[in-house]
Write a structure and sequence with these properties.
The complex is a heterodimer of chains A (about 240) and B (about 290). Chain A has about 240 residues and is mainly beta. Helix content of chain A is about 15%, strand content about 35%. In chain B, helix 7 crosses helix 10. Classes of the chains: A mainly beta (about 240), B mainly alpha (about 290). The interface between A and B is large, with 30 and 41 residues.
Chain lengths: ~240, ~290
């Protein structure tokens, strides 16, 4: 092989490799991204959830006549999986606050909030709707000192949806004064988040490779954290176990 | 020197935070407040300066509203409704939508009017200048006035002539949006949800009873009543109905509410001849 041929070979190899790397690099950033998955469980037997007396409003009684409503603090599924826990990145997230363009819905249905816990990104728009034939007032109670401002709006039957957002991270209780058993949560975090399903499973999507601290929140104020590493093509995992409070 | 001051602030705030259980969320220190003493209020051509109201506040207001404006004055345990926590910047009587700051005029009107059925008297003894200064002083307690602008006052169309049709239409609005859930079908504050009402800080609170001759808290003109249900009384269970009652319907509702009130009014006279029955809570929607 002449010197010249050698050089060409090396050059083509270099070009090939760089092209490959470039292509691979693009693939990694386009697929985005990793994720964090796991389950949240409740340790021991699920506490008894008291039934709710809705006799104040006959509409609500009738709406729940099929399966009587009960408190939703601990909704425990298969293998102790805990529903309605919120998982978010509490350290290591450097992306922008508005990671999601989706508009989640907080519905008033059968005189209960659906979902009971609504996780949100700071600044993310959400919608409050009513499916009920009775008047509700939707009354979130953030601490005004955080920059989230409380408001209180009525939603009679057939009311148009209300669109709102929360400025800053905070766990905000939401209540209806007309139906005092109606109690839900808006959990406002920064960056990607997930809420556990009926079996306690969750997946936080759109997490770029890196080292993070994941926080699991469960009402009213329980939190746990874990360190998680997300690598390209390899999701991070974090399982949590809460004790009934 | 500068550093030492910072450290002392920290030590003092920590001591304050640990030693005094606050009745609310607010945690503003005297240092935070002093930094905002330059705040102004504007009513017409009068400009109010917070620092000029210090004397009046310490003499007349501090006993209830407290040194730090957090409603934790000496009289806090003895008065009910509890004094307003100015640090939160949340006010009942506003011309602005729910979740927004009131205008200077709103605060000025509250100081002048007082709040019926509470320990807040009418402060008509102050000059106008003193009252505007006090508005600025009230504003310096909350960081909200630095970070936000007051809301835009709601537009109230001119009051139409009261007619029998309008009173009946107002009764339909009363039934449709279910005012009776708290206020009761006769306005006697005995609706099914009345007994469990609490304010934003979890303290029991009563719905307004229309039949006792009491003055509504945020004023007793027709426009004041219009404003109450279209802005809501923030900090209380009374929500805003602005999205669900049209301006014209709102006037109908004002006329119907007048028929429930003990005070004499043209609407009340007309209603006598109409022989209106209280709304039926069990009637299907739209069939009152």
């Amino acid at each position: 092989m002449t010197m010249r041929n050698k050089f060409t070979a090396v050059l083509s190899a270099v070009i090939l490799v760089s092209c490959g790397a470039l292509f691979l690099g693009q693939r990694v950033s386009a697929a985005g991204e990793g994720k964090i998955t796991g389950t949240v469980k409740l340790d021991g037997a699920a506490p008894h959830m008291k039934g709710i007396d809705m006799s104040k409003d006959p509409y609500c009684v009738k709406a729940n006549s099929g399966s009587p409503a009960h408190l939703q603090i601990y909704e425990v599924g298969a293998n102790g999986g805990l529903q309605n826990a919120v998982l978010y990145i509490s350290e290591g997230w450097t992306g922008s606050a508005a990671a999601s363009t989706e508009v989640p819905v907080f519905d008033q249905k059968n005189c209960m909030y659906t979902p009971h816990v609504l996780a949100l990104d700071a600044g993310q728009t959400f919608k409050v709707t009513t499916s009920d034939q009775t008047t509700h007032n939707i009354h979130p109670l953030p601490n005004p000192m955080t920059g989230n401002i409380p408001w209180n709006q009525s939603q009679p039957p057939g009311a148009t949806p209300i669109e709102k957002s929360w400025k800053n991270t905070e766990v905000i209780p939401v209540q209806c004064n007309i139906h005092p058993w109606m109690h839900g949560w808006h959990v406002v975090v920064k960056g990607p988040y997930a809420t556990t399903d009926a079996n306690g499973a969750y997946t936080i999507n759109n997490v770029p490779p890196g080292n993070y601290t994941v926080t699991a929140w469960h009402e009213p104020d329980q939190t746990q954290t874990q360190k998680v590493t997300v690598a390209a093509g390899k999701p991070g995992t974090a399982d949590f176990t809460f004790k009934p409070k | 020197m500068r550093r030492r001051f910072g450290m002392w602030t920290l030590v003092i705030s920590a001591a304050v935070a640990l030693a005094i259980p606050m009745p609310s969320w607010a945690q503003q220190t005297i240092y935070d407040l002093n930094a905002r003493l330059g705040i102004e209020a504007h009513i017409g051509k009068i400009t109010g300066h917070a620092k000029d109201a210090k004397g009046d506040y310490r003499r007349y207001c501090v006993v209830c509203h407290g040194e730090l404006g957090d409603g934790n004055g000496e009289s806090f345990p003895w008065v009910d409704p509890k004094p307003r926590d100015f640090q939160l910047g949340v006010f009942k009587c506003r011309s602005t939508p729910t979740g927004t700051l009131p205008t200077d005029q709103d605060l000025f009107d509250t100081i002048a009017r007082g709040l019926d059925r509470s320990n807040m008297p009418q402060w008509s003894t102050f000059t106008k200048q003193e009252r505007v200064d006090l508005v600025a002083w009230v504003k310096h307690f909350s960081p909200r006035w630095t970070n936000e602008k007051p809301g835009t006052p709601i537009v109230i169309p001119p009051e139409p002539e009261v007619t029998a049709e309008r009173i009946k239409a107002g009764r339909d609005v009363f039934a449709r949006v279910q005012c009776w859930k708290c206020h009761g079908v006769m306005g006697q504050a005995n609706g099914p949800s009345a007994a469990t009402l609490t304010d934003d800080l979890g303290r029991p609170i009563a719905a307004f009873n229309f039949t006792e001759g009491a003055r509504p808290k945020c004023g007793d003109t027709d426009r004041d009543i219009y404003r109450i249900f279209m802005t809501g009384l923030d900090g209380t269970p009374m929500p805003s109905f602005a999205d669900n009652i049209k301006p014209d319907e709102a006037w109908d509702l004002v006329f119907y509410l007048r028929t429930l009130m003990k005070q004499p009014s043209k609407a009340k006279e007309m209603a006598k001849k109409l022989d209106l029955k209280p709304v039926d809570p069990n009637a299907p929607a739209g069939q009152q």
